[in-house]
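name: query_chain
kind: protein
chains: 1
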Amino acid sequence: MVAAVLAPLAAGAQVNSDTGNNSGPSQGTYKYEAYVGGAYTRIRQVPASYSGLIGGRASLARNWGKYFQLTGSVDYYEVGTGHSGIPSPGKPTVYTVLAAPGLHATLYENLSGLVFAELGAEHTGGEFMSPNISVAGGFGGGLAYSLSSRLAVQLTGDRLGASFPLPDQSTKLGYSTHRTWNVRGTIGVVYRF
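structure:
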């Protein structure tokens, strides 16, 4: 009788520790993620110049709970040498400042996915546009592969819409705004803290 009463106590004391060996790195419970990476975009608001621009992106994200995050990002792009080494007729530059609420989740072991919506401002320089700043917004997603609990490699893509004037042949400045949708891609490193 005494053994039957004490058996549940002995069985309850045998609990596996959560700090044992894990099969791979996990995302842990870090509240912030810093991201730095290279970027590429094709812009449609500069028809007189080559539209393939290269640049970089930096962002800081704050995680709330298991799935939600809010990200602030800055991007900068400029024209390279042109297509096949041919100089571009113009010298377009683009930078954006965006805020993006998003959802992220682990898909399989070290691989996680994210989707986000963006809102902010985009500036196009070097093309004599007036105005050269527009409200911008869009959507995107990506994949991150965790190398450790703090480091990951992340690949993202988005489609950003803005309104800029198109060049007018008679006045050199077009004041009619047209919506443009620019596709962008980035690859970089995430540091969680």
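note: Residues 2-12 form the longest helix (11 residues).
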